[in-house]
Design goal:
By secondary structure, this protein is an alpha+beta fold. It has a single domain, classed as Nuclear Transport Factor 2, Chain: A, CATH 3.10.450.50. Helices cover 27% and strands 47% of the residues. The chain has a 6-stranded mixed sheet.
């Protein structure tokens, strides 16, 4: 694994760590000032401040005490200073006293500026069963 791949893997690990600590400031610190974040329900957040604010809100409410496990799936370098990072997320939380889980596939576009990697974009997609009419052959 290259030094850059290790740094990108570390970002994924640190995002998981920040989530599980309920630390919105630490979570947002891995994003550029002008990052775009599209959360699991499709809402777009623009900028680190907005990313931190919404995570503070969800860490204090619906996802309070939740546990998220991020697994790095793949890193694809688009240029030496730009990479796509594909992740699998497994979130466990309680909803009105009932245990719930969400499986998702976050995709990050990460840029290297001044020797530091940060996420410039984050798209989170909920994994759900597609309707039978649009299921691809073989899966």
């Amino acid at each position: 694994m290259t030094t850059d791949e290790q740094a990108l893997s570390q970002i994924v690990a640190k995002l998981e760590e920040a989530w599980n600590a309920g630390d919105s400031a630490a979570f947002a610190s891995y994003f550029t000032d002008d990052a775009t974040f599209i959360h699991i329900f499709g809402r777009q957040l623009d900028g680190r401040t907005a990313i931190q604010a919404i995570h503070r809100q969800i860490f204090d409410t619906i996802y309070k005490g939740s546990r998220n496990h991020f697994t790095l799936q793949r890193i694809r370098f688009l240029r030496p200073d730009v990479a796509m990072v594909f992740v699998h997320a497994h979130l466990k939380f309680n909803d009105c006293g009932q245990p719930r889980k969400i499986l998702a596939r976050p995709t990050l576009v990460v840029v290297k500026e001044n020797g530091r990697w940060q996420a410039a974009a984050f798209q989170n997609t909920w994994i759900s069963e597609p309707p039978a009419a649009i299921k691809a052959p073989g899966g």
